[in-house]
């Protein structure tokens, strides 16, 4: 089921999420809904707080050409980061049509649990590394615009407030 994506500013996007303690069928359903929502948006990553669920769950798929590789990461943790940095122009489904360059570690090693609770570990680089760091930031209550200077951040926030007002007006018509 495709779920609505929260738009910044929304207080839920700024709160750290709780770890997942129980691996239930509801959790697997949440992960499936998140993947459907991400692909529909379309995007390459989505964190649970973006749909109003305050749990440490993210989904991602950075394959542009070729068979998809949907990934579900529960309770993800970066256990190692490279000293080398890379800069990507990032966007966010909760901040539509706004992009900015963000510098992050080029390579990261991440541990997480899959939908059954089994431990997983993988090293990510390139777009995958940027995406997983961006989504883990969401789980910690941080947005990509938090890496920007205050003027640019305020400008984007004002644009999002205007977008939310316009959408609310359209919905009431």
Provide a quick synopsis of the model:
The protein is of the alpha+beta class. 31% of the residues lie in helices and 29% in strands.
Helix and strand layout, with pairings?
Elements (H helix, E strand, L loop, with lengths): L24 H16 L4 E3 L9 E4 L10 E11 L3 E8 L2 E11 L1 E7 L5 E7 H14 L10 H23 L1
Antiparallel strand pairs: 1-2, 2-3, 3-6, 4-5, 6-7
Question: How would you describe the overall organization of this protein?
Answer:
The chain is globular. It has a five-stranded antiparallel β-sheet with strand order 1-2-3-6-7. The chain has a single domain (11-172), classed as Alpha-Beta Complex (Peptide Deformylase), CATH 3.90.45. The model has no long low-confidence stretch (mean pLDDT 97). A hairpin with a 2-residue loop joins strand 4 (85-92) and strand 5. It has helices spanning 25-40, 126-139, 150-172; strands at residues 45-47, 57-60, 71-81, 85-92, 95-105, 107-113, 119-125. 31% of the residues lie in helices and 29% in strands. It has 173 residues and is of the alpha+beta class.
Any low-confidence stretches, pLDDT <50, length ≥5? none
Task: Determine the fraction of residues in helical runs and give it as a percent range.
Answer: 25-40%
Percentage of residues in strands:
25-35%
- CATH-derived architecture: Alpha-Beta Complex
The largest beta-sheet arranges its strands as: 1-2-3-6-7
Question: Main sheet, how many strands, which sense, barrel?
Answer: 5 strands, antiparallel
Strand pairing plus helix content: what structural class? alpha+beta
Can you say what the CATH homologous superfamily is? Peptide deformylase
How many individual helices? 3
The CATH class turns out to be Alpha Beta
Distance between the termini: 25 Å
Instruction: List how many beta strands DSSP finds.
Output: 7
Taking all Cα atoms into account, the compactness measure Rg is 16 Å
Integer tally of domains: 1
**Could you spell the SSE succession in H and E letters?**
HEEEEEEEHH
Topology-level CATH name? Peptide Deformylase
- Kindly state the mean pLDDT as a whole number? 97
């Amino acid at each position: 089921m495709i779920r609505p994506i929260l738009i910044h500013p929304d207080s839920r996007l700024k709160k750290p999420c709780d770890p997942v303690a129980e691996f239930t069928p509801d959790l697997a359903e949440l992960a499936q809904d998140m993947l459907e929502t991400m692909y529909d948006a379309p995007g390459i990553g989505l964190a649970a707080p973006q749909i109003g669920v305050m749990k440490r769950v993210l989904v991602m798929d950075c394959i542009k050409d070729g068979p998809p590789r949907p990934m579900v990461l529960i309770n993800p943790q970066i256990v190692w980061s490279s000293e080398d940095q890379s800069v990507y122009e990032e966007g966010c489904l909760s901040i539509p049509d706004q992009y900015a360059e963000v510098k992050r570690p080029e390579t990261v090693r991440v541990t997480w649990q899959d939908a059954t609770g089994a431990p997983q570990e993988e090293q990510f680089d390139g777009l995958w590394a940027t995406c997983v760091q961006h989504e883990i930031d969401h789980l910690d209550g941080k947005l990509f615009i938090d890496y920007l200077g205050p003027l640019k951040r305020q400008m984007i926030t004002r644009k999002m407030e205007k977008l939310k007002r316009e959408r609310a007006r359209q919905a009431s018509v």
